[in-house]
Design brief:
Blueprint (H helix, E strand, L loop, with lengths): L2 H31 L6 H19 L2 H11 L10 H17 L3 H21 L5 H22 L5 H6 L8 H24 L15 H15 L6 E5 L5 E5 L2 E6 L6 H20 L15 H15 L3 H5 L2 H7 L8 H8 L13 H20 L7 H13 L25 H20 L3 H7 L3 H10 L9 H9 L6 H15 L2
Parallel strand pairs: 1-3
Antiparallel strand pairs: 2-3
Helix pairs in contact: 1-2, 1-3, 2-5, 3-4, 5-6, 8-15, 8-21, 9-10, 10-11, 11-17, 15-16, 15-17, 17-21
The protein binds zinc ion (ZN).
Zinc ion binds next to helix 10 and helix 11.
């Protein structure tokens, strides 16, 4: 067999596994949106079977043989060619997958589905005791997964690698220390400031249909293509790229609060435009996939915060918001802009402002490590959670619904996922600064409503490359510098300094 034949066969197999995986994604999307409650157990069986089939396909020994032929050939001479990138990433995922026993993969999929349903029931009742056995089981499975994959420094590294290839606890810790060192005093200074936003204007009547319309219209203006995507309602907003031409966004609405629905849509649309910006010709191969969750989160954060929460955006848009929501008539534009940028320590991560958000991430990063190493018993999670909330943010959740039960991640087996949110915030600040430089002033384009300039810049620097570069290299090429929290911190200090007069 020639190297070209081996490569073609690898492409064929990769596409087939991607197609099967995308069918499983749709089952999961349906579970989060429209599936009746009674369908849970059956859906768990379906997802477990699909996961097992995909895993079996991805671990067939012939893939190892085909990879060996391709790796020894001229096909991979240029490390930046699509062939090289695909072979490198196939090797990485083949090595990871072949280390996992099929039984563990199926058990994980089944437990994820059932644990999520247990979490959905336990959360509104703040019933941590009902969820604890599932968390215990999940941690056992994730430990087994990490041990099977192997790691050099920390058990947790083997799990983060699934979401942020190459990321390590030893590299994340110093980044997070720097965030904490400057964010905690900033939040304290804001708390002591005499100037305060009037948030009452965000808690008026915002009819659901008007929210859906205004949010969808803005997402479409940003460049999310509704011919190749849609928007539905769920309890925990997410974006799912099903395949070329089909990207699903979800949000949730509160008829008495503006921020929840609107900024979730902008956030998920940022993710969606990344999915829609991937090269369809590379579908089913690593070159047609997003490079990491951290980079994915740079896209959502940039559109949600740098664009959607900017003064420039509302200069060009506040009148149309007042048209969509009569309850905003009489509100001032500057006061509205201050209100949507209000900073206050709160219990819920997804509602957190830009200044406190990363502190929520740091809390989860620390608790996850302790759960995996066994330093923290599952039964003590609520106590540990509340103590860290007090230490980092100065508030204590009144119940577990607003404490350790708030996020879906642990029930879904997503250990190691949280740090990618902070990496996204850091990277988004760097990308925004680079785009600002390259476009000769980002705010001018935003105010005019010319979102295409930024979207095309991101498409060129990030989206179209798929997994061609490692996450750190992609960011370095796009921005000219390595991952560095200083830019984010300086941007936040400047923005809130002006708003709060501190
Ligand atoms: Zn996101």
């Amino acid at each position: 067999m020639t190297a070209t034949q081996a490569y073609s066969e690898l492409v064929r197999r990769s596409r087939e596994a991607a197609l099967l995986g995308s069918a499983a994604s749709l089952l999961a999307w349906d579970q989060e949106t429209y599936m009746p409650k009674g369908g849970g157990e059956h859906r768990g069986e379906q997802l477990a079977l699909m996961a097992g089939i995909v895993h079996q396909r991805r671990t067939e020994p012939v893939i190892g043989e085909l990879l060996a032929v391709a790796e020894a050939s001229e096909l991979v001479a240029d490390p930046e060619s699509p062939e090289s990138a695909n072979v490198r990433e196939w090797r990485r995922s083949y090595d990871r997958a072949t280390k996992l026993p099929a039984k563990l993969v199926e058990e994980l999929a089944r437990t994820e589905s059932l644990a999520q349903q247990a979490w959905v029931e336990a959360k509104p009742k703040s019933d941590f005791a009902a969820f604890a056995p599932w968390l215990e089981k999940m941690i056992g499975l994730k430990k087994a997964q990490a041990e099977a994959i192997g790691y050099q420094e920390h058990l947790y590294d083997a799990l983060i690698d699934d979401y942020e290839p190459g990321a390590k606890v030893s590299e994340l810790r110093p980044l997070f220390v720097r965030l904490r060192e400057r964010l905690a005093p900033l939040v304290a200074k804001i708390g002591a400031a005499s100037r305060k936003p009037d948030e009452s204007m965000l808690r008026r009547d915002f009819p659901l249909e008007a929210q859906r319309e205004f949010g969808s219209k803005t997402a479409a203006e940003f460049g999310f293509d509704f011919e190749r995507g849609r928007l539905d309602v769920t309890s925990h907003p997410f974006c799912m790229g099903v395949g070329p031409g089909d990207c699903r966004l979800t949000t949730r609405y509160d008829a008495g609060y503006f921020n929840d629905g609107f900024f979730s849509i902008l956030h998920e649309a940022g993710h969606g435009m990344y999915e829609q910006g991937l090269e369809a010709a590379h579908y089913g191969t690593p070159m047609g996939e997003a490079v990491s969750l951290g980079v994915h989160e740079t896209q959502s954060r940039l559109w949600e915060n740098r664009v959607g929460r900017s003064a420039a955006f509302w200069k060009g848009r506040f009148a149309s918001a007042q048209g969509a929501f009569p309850s905003l008539k009489g509100a001032g534009r500057d006061a509205f802009h201050f209100a949507i940028n209000a900073v206050a320590p709160t219990f819920i991560r997804v509602d957190a402002d830009e200044a406190t958000y990363n502190l929520h991430v740091i809390l989860r990063f620390e608790i996850e490590q302790d759960l995996l190493t066994g330093a923290l018993p599952v039964a003590d999670v609520p106590t540990a959670w509340n103590a860290k909330m007090e230490e980092l943010l100065g508030v204590t959740p009144p119940d577990d619904r607003r404490g350790c039960l708030q996020d879906v991640h642990w029930s879904a087996g997503l250990f190691g996922y949280f740090p990618t949110y902070a990496l996204g915030n850091i990277g988004a600040a760097q990308l925004a600064a680079a785009a600002d430089r390259d476009l000769g002033g980002l705010d001018a384009t935003i105010e005019k409503g010319d979102f295409g300039a930024l979207r095309e810049w991101l498409r060129d620097r990030v989206h179209r490359h798929g997994m061609r570069y490692r996450p750190g290299d992609l960011l370095r090429r796009a921005t000219g510098s390595a991952l560095d929290p200083d830019l984010l911190l300086s941007q936040l200090e400047a923005k809130y300094g002006a708003l709060y007069g501190i």
